[in-house]
Structures are given as C-alpha cells and as structure tokens.
Amino acid sequence: MSVPMILTPIEAQGTDEHMQNCAAYVEAATVPPGTLIKYGTANELETATGATGATCKPTLREFNVRLETPLAPEERLGLTGDVKALGEWQLSRCVPLDSLDELNWQATVPLQSCRQLEYRYFVYVEDLSGYKQIRRWETHFKPRSLGPCSEIQCSQIDVFGITADNADLKPQVHRGWLNHEVIVQLKFNGEKMFQVHDIETFDPQHVQLKIVPVEMTAGLQVEYTKQEYGKSQLENQPTFGVPYTKGDIVIFHITVPLEKMMQQHFRLDCYTMSNELLGSANLVSSELQGSEGLLHLRIKSASDAEETLARLRLPYVIVQPYRYSPLDFKTTYAHYWPKSWPNLDVGHRGNGKSYIADAPAERENTIASFLSAHEHHADMIELDVHLTADGVPVIYHDFGLRTAPPGKQITKPDQLEYVLIKDINYELLKRLRIFSVINGRVVEYPSHNAESRPAHRIFPRLVEVLDELPKSLGIDVEIKWPQRRQGGGSEAEQTIDKNFFADRVLHQVIQHGCGRPIIFSSFDADMCTMLRFKQNIFPVMYLTQGQTKKWQPFLDLRTRTFEAAVNNAQAFELAGTAPHAEDFLGENAAQMLQQAKDLGQIAVLWGDDCNSRERVKYFRQIGATATCYDRSDLYMPDGKQEAFFKSPALMAEFAAQCRI
C-alpha cells in the first residue's frame, strides 16, 4: 500500500535577530511500513512505553482542515501543538499544511500512538527571508485535543476556527502577534489635518485616500479601518481609496517585514468621489523616526507635479515586536472574560485616592492600599505604571510630583517644585520629599525611604507589587502616557520611547504577573494597539474619558465618545473599553453598554460618579462588566463575602499564562 509523504523540519540556522524564523520543510523519501525515522529532535517515531504500560508505536496522523472561505493567494495554513513533532507551540518549528483545493488542507505527521496531544491551526504568510507572519490563529481558551490512536494511520477532520467548545458554531479566530515584522499606522484621527490652497481644486471634505506601496514585497500588507459602529474591522483598501471627510476616523494599518522597514516607500493617492486621481504625496519609511511622530506631506497635483494642492499633517505610530523573548501558541487570555462572570468590583488605585481630604488610612498605589481593597473583597485593583529615567516601572498616578530640597521649610504651594517621573532615576525618586496641596494647604508625606513599613512605601516597583499581591487579586495595569489636548498642549512631556516603555512593562508582567487575572489599559489608543500586537497573553482595554464636562477633550477623536472607543476596540481586537462613568448616567446607559456587549466587548466603568453604594449597585444593574471605584471599605455591595477569584478552580484556569 502507498504511504503518505512525510515532511521533516530543518531547524532554522541564524542569529538571535532571526530567532523567529520558521523552519523550512523538505520532502523526505517514501517510508516503508515499520521503518523508524527520527523526526527532528523529537522521539515521536521511536517505540516507547505509555503511562499505562502499553507500548506506544509510531503512527501517521493525518490532519485535515476545511476552511469556510479561501485563503488569499499568499497565505498558507500551519499546524502547531504541544509535542515536538508539532513544534511545541513555537512558530519557528510549525508544520505547514498542503492545499488539496481552495478550502481543504492536509498534513501527515508521525506521532506516538498512545499520546494525548493538543494542537491549533493558524494562517500565515512568509516573507522573502523565510520568516512567517501570523495572519490569523485559533484562539479558543482550550486548544484542540487529540486522543490516542491504535491504527497504523489515523485521520483527523477539523473546521478552521470551530471546535466542540463553539456552541454557536462561530469561528473563534483572531489576528496574530508581531514576530519579525512591524506595524506602521498612518492616522487620520484629528480635526484639522489638511491645509488646502484652493478648495475648488482639492476639497478635503470629499476625497478618497489610498496608501500605495511603491515596492511590492512578500509579507507587506496595507489595510485600513474606517471606524463606524459594527463595521470597524481592518480590511483591504478599495480600488480608488477610502472615502474621507472631516470628523472621520480612518487609520491605515501597514504590516512591513522588519528587514524592509527602512527601505520601503509609499505613496498617498487622493481621488475625487468620482474616482479621478487628484494628486499624490510620497512617504519614505526612513522618515519615520522613533515610535511615533508627525509627517508633513505635500500633496502634488496629478496634472502638474510642480503644483501643491494641499499640505497634510499626518500622525503615525510604529509598533515593533516584543523584544525580550518569543511568545507561543499555547494559549491566550486576550479575549478571556466568560459571560458567566459577575460584575466585578475594582479598587481604584487600591483602596482609593489618598491625596485628598478624608483619605483612607493607606496611601494610594501602595501595596498596603491594594491589600486593603482585597481584604474588603475587591476582585481586582487598578494601578498606574510609569517608567523612571533608568527604565524602572514604578506605581504612581500623576506624571510628576511636588517636591522640595531637603531641610527647606514649606508653607505655601508656590514654594514647591514639580518634577516628572520620567526624568528621575529610581534611587533618587525614593529619596524625594513628597507634598500635596489639599484645599490650599500644603501637606507633606513620608518619602519612600522615610517610610519604615515596606507595604506603605510610595513608588513601589511594578515587580514588587506583582510578587507581593496574592494571585487571587486581579490587576488592571494602566499604562500612563500623556495625551495632547484639543485646545493645545499636553498633559505632560514624554521623551521615553513608546515601544521601549511598553516592552519594559510587558517583560515584568510576563515574568512576574502570570497565573492571575490581569488586564492592560491606557488612555493612549496607540499604546493599546502596541500592547495588543506585541503579545497574545493578556487582554487590553481602551481607557477613555468620553463626553465629560470635567476635563478638556483630548485631541485624538477616538477619545471623545464611548462609541468611538468601542469602534477602536473592534478595529484592533481589544478586549473592550474602560469608559468614564459620567457617560452612563442618562436614560440610554444600558443600551450603550449593550452595544459593546453585542460586539463581544467588556466595559469597565470608572470615575468619581462610581463612588457610592447606590452608584455601584446602579452600574451593576445596567450591565457594566466591572465598576472601578474608591473606598472598597465603604462602598462594597452588601452581602459580598469574598472576592470572586478566591476560588481554586478559577485560579487553576490562569496557570497556563505562565511561560517560564
């Protein structure tokens, strides 16, 4: 009888820079029955003894997968799992499938007959250097499972994205994370972006925009999102571009192989609504400095290259791969928030704000404050992360602090100095005097080094918090990044590179924070995008202040309304949003929250409007996923006996987060 051809992996040879390279695969000779073959570094084709004492013999396992829609011409289907022959969840050792037709794919892999194994499928493309980009992958909380096989050859038939756990038979598939490619986003997300010379010649209210790569290369992809409720997913560009008018939020999402990043050229083409080319502007990727910035482009007439039709101020952000270690396909919690969970209680900065009148006993954002919230049955706590000048993630709310030289007597607020955390090394930060102004009165608090009780010390390091808090206490890790205001200016200066900031925080959370409920959040939409595409372990939610009367609006249109935040979360596959509670005091509050739920998103409400027993109860009733408020000791709902995650069964679900 004929025996299927077997694909054998060749381990990638390369430097650390190329550690993400997927192994190339070569065709081995036809294998006579009974022949033992070494499969890479694995022992799947060696006879072994199973757990029950039975003999495990080599078996050819045939994986058959059916797609619901055909792949793009450049896309392939891959297979990975928890045994060596399937790559042990590593992209660099994955198994490629062969296409039987446009919807059916197949691979034959030698495996031990008595072995229980787990596996997943994913869609990828390969660039010119042989590196694979994960386009889409199966993201079920539990991987597929395959039992022992007693036959010489066994066959498995699957549908991509659908497992036995899919009660609704809807595919559970999400975009991958970055490995050896970068994302460039060009953002039409402001109010005054075009400066037009002649409105009759170029009308920015009625134009179609398209990003065109000048050099085409494998692994390069241009997509866009035009953010409208329920229709914000990334997709390919129309032939004559994306219709745009003032107030629209249109973001071009460009994936570029890492090696091509500094060599790639693009062109922005502008069309009339009747599909006539008006003009173009050239973009050179080498002009994209740092992680973010502002391009100043001249749109030149299509009929006269010397004529400038308009000037464009175009913000951009660059998302680099997570720099510390490769991630894998083992599992993901990026969208893990079961509908069976109750409304959760989240302690704001621990047990609440403390630099105010009638403050709690513990200072905010200290280990003592976090533990106090947990003692009063908070399910999670929210904390704020900054990076010091020497790259240490520390916990504190404001971007800076009021201080004064040692020994100087302070009686008036104008005697205080204001310094930014990003400008201070951690050892100096621990020595600084700390002041607050409460109702016009200057109050001094113990510095970190002056506080004798470790749990009460200000500026705890993120790693200390992760190590000290019980695993049963969930954590909302808010990344602090200053926002530009609509009326001009910024919340604070920031000179630290955004990718560096994100990687430093991610590294500590991955190393020390796994095994517990953790979610990332940020007021900065681009930081949320970074956290989403740099990793596949933790969920990310977009934190917004919405249509508030309390503060000046931010410049980014995505921050202005709850619907805009929901749209942005849908575009980049965030877990959901953390909107300001002020938006949910009207009659349509429950309907607004339902709109988020209809898209599979969570909504964690926060703000002073949450700070009463009545409000906590109200937000629970209208359907908030969680409510973040001060003073768990005062406002925790009556009758709550313990925090939700104080359950061994629940905590066991988070054990797979830990990769180390």
TrEMBL record:
Residues 343-639 form the GP-PDE domain. It comes from Drosophila madeirensis (Fruit fly). InterPro entries: Carb-bd-like_fold, CBM20, GDPD, GP_PDE_dom, Ig-like_fold, PLC-like_Pdiesterase_TIM-brl. PROSITE patterns: CBM20, GP_PDE, PIPLC_X_DOMAIN. PANTHER family: GLYCEROPHOSPHOCHOLINE PHOSPHODIESTERASE GPCPD1, GLYCEROPHOSPHORYL DIESTER PHOSPHODIESTERASE. SMART domains: CBM_2. This is Glycerophosphocholine phosphodiesterase GPCPD1. SUPFAM superfamilies: PLC-like phosphodiesterases, Starch-binding domain-like. Keywords: Hydrolase.
